[in-house]
Amino acid sequence: MAVRSLFMIAICCVIWGCASNEDVENNKGSKKLVHGEQSSHEQSKSMVSLLKDNKLSDYTNLTIGAAFDSYKFLEKKEWKESRSQNGKFYIDFTGWAGSLPKGIDSLKSGVSARGVNVKFVVNPGGEYYVTMISKLEARTDGKLNVVPFEDKKRILDAIYLNKEIVF
């Protein structure tokens, strides 16, 4: 029994050693991608993580992750990704404001919470951009109203400058 166990351990070490050498060989000639050097570690990263590590072309002072995750006017923040059949990734950032604006009787109008959704597209070649930004209104009847903002730049400016979005 001990010989059999020792044999299995030796086989596993040989297989593991070959796989490690193969990974090293594959990475020697890897291409520089939008998300950095290709490696087995980065291949396992989610598309959300890769996007958050990059910067938007008009906002080079902060990474996408730093700007959105540190935006102080949204309390509940969530990132989701999905992949289409054509190879594009869609990444949604959704954030909800902590309280409704003062001076507006929103509950009487049926609004229980407000938030924002930013939809990013990542093309198969690695190019990425913001495709749509929407205002979210959770209603007291359980429905969700989604209304696209016409001025995406105004919302992105507010997020990157850490200023309150005026709904």
Q: Would you write up a description of this structure?
A:
By secondary structure, this protein is of the alpha+beta class. It has two domains: 29 residues; 115 residues, no CATH class. Helix content is 31%, strand content 29%. It has five helices and seven strands. The strands form two sheets. A five-stranded antiparallel β-sheet has the order 3-4-5-6-7. It has a two-stranded antiparallel ribbon with strand order 1-2. Strand 3 and strand 4 form a beta hairpin. The longest helix has 27 residues. The termini are far apart. The N terminus is likely disordered.
Brief overview:
Helices cover 31% and strands 29% of the residues. It has helices at 2-28, 40-43, 47-52, 64-69, 152-160, and strands at residues 32-33, 36-37, 76-83, 89-96, 111-122, 128-139, 144-148.
Please tally the helical runs, counting DSSP H or I stretches of 4 or more residues: 5
Class by alpha and beta content: alpha+beta
Helix content estimate: 25-40%
Order the strands across the largest sheet as they lie in space.
Answer: 3-4-5-6-7
- The coarse overall form would be globular
Strand-residue proportion: 25-35%
Structural Rg: 23 Å
Q: What is the chain-wise order of helices and strands? A: HEEHHHEEEEEH
pLDDT below 50 for ≥5 consecutive residues: which ranges?
1-43
Major sheet details: 5 strands, antiparallel
Oligomeric state of this protein: single chain
In whole angstroms, the N-to-C terminal distance is 71 Å
Q: Mean pLDDT, rounded to whole units?
A: 76
How many domains make up the coordinates?
A: 2
User: How many DSSP-defined strands?
Assistant: 7
